[in-house]
Amino acid sequence: MIRKSSVRNLTVILTFIFMAVSCSNNSPTAPRNPESLLTSQGEDIPIESFTESFKSQSVKGVIDAVTPNPDGTLTISVRDKTSGNDVSILVTNQTHIFIGNNNRPGTIADIKVGEHVNVKYKVVNGQNVATTVHIHNH
Question: pLDDT tens across 23-79, in order?
């Protein structure tokens, strides 16, 4: 004789199995390349390009050029103190600007050619975007 509780348990288990199988047929497939992510359109995106924008990078050096952009942002060129290479970085109204040893708040207007700076930035859509600019010559 089969107990009612056993039948109920078996029914619940079979229902979950059925739901799991049904849902798995509607889910996207795994990326073809294990080093990539799968978009909602079924395209593989390299994990490296996806995570690149989350990595903070920095450069310490002297500002070689300041170019105002029509949208109120600046593009600065910083000569890296270590490598000697120029790094082009976008400064926006979201960038935190600090001046001197006491970290006095600054503005985009404080950024000038010849200033010694430490700049932290992230790569966003292939462009270096400053998160923090610390100006040392004040």
Answer: 554 445 554 555 555 555 566 555 555 555 567 899 999 999 999 999 989 999 999
Write down the pTM of the prediction.
0.61
For residue 25, the one-letter residue type is N
d(CA 137, CA 66): 16
Q: Which of 60, 100, 56, 57 shows the shortest CA–CA distance to 79? A: 60
Q: How far is CA 82 from CA 41, 92, 105, in A?
A: 43, 25, 27
Backbone angles phi, psi at 102, to 5 degrees: -90, 5
DSSP string across 49-118: HHHHTT-EEEEEEEEEEEEE-TTS-EEEEEEETTT--EEEEEE-TTSEEEETTTTEE--GGG--TT-EEE
Confidence of residue 133 (pLDDT cuts 50, 70, 90): very high
Query: What size, in residues, is the chain?
Result: 138
